[in-house]
Design a protein that fits this description.
Layout: H1 3-28, H2 42-58, H3 68-84, H4 89-96
């Protein structure tokens, strides 16, 4: 097994889980009364907050709506497609070997 294949096996599920967590985080913004510090919601909050906090400093909420989770879904989806898509960089590397 090559390094590109191992990277693909690790990075694919990791990016998919992060996209899912950010989508779940978007849904949680519809319910502001929910305490995200309690289990099981902290399993969504803890991995996403380190990426959202710096993004909030760059992009303030628009009309009281935090758009940074939507931004991260877009970034991670693009990254996944560029690296692991049908003509992605890592996919092409695994086909060459």
């Amino acid at each position: 097994m090559t390094a590109a294949e191992i990277t693909s096996w690790v990075l694919g599920p990791l990016l998919a889980v992060m996209i899912f967590l950010f989508i779940f985080r978007i849904v949680l913004t519809w319910y502001p009364q929910v305490n995200v510090q309690q289990f099981p919601l902290n399993l969504v909050f803890l991995p996403t907050e380190p990426l959202l906090a710096p993004a909030r400093k760059l992009i303030p909420p628009l009309g009281g709506v935090d758009i940074t989770p939507i931004l991260w879904v877009g970034i991670l989806s693009l990254l996944r497609e560029v690296l692991l898509g049908q003509q992605g960089l890592i996919t092409m590397m695994t086909r060459l070997s």
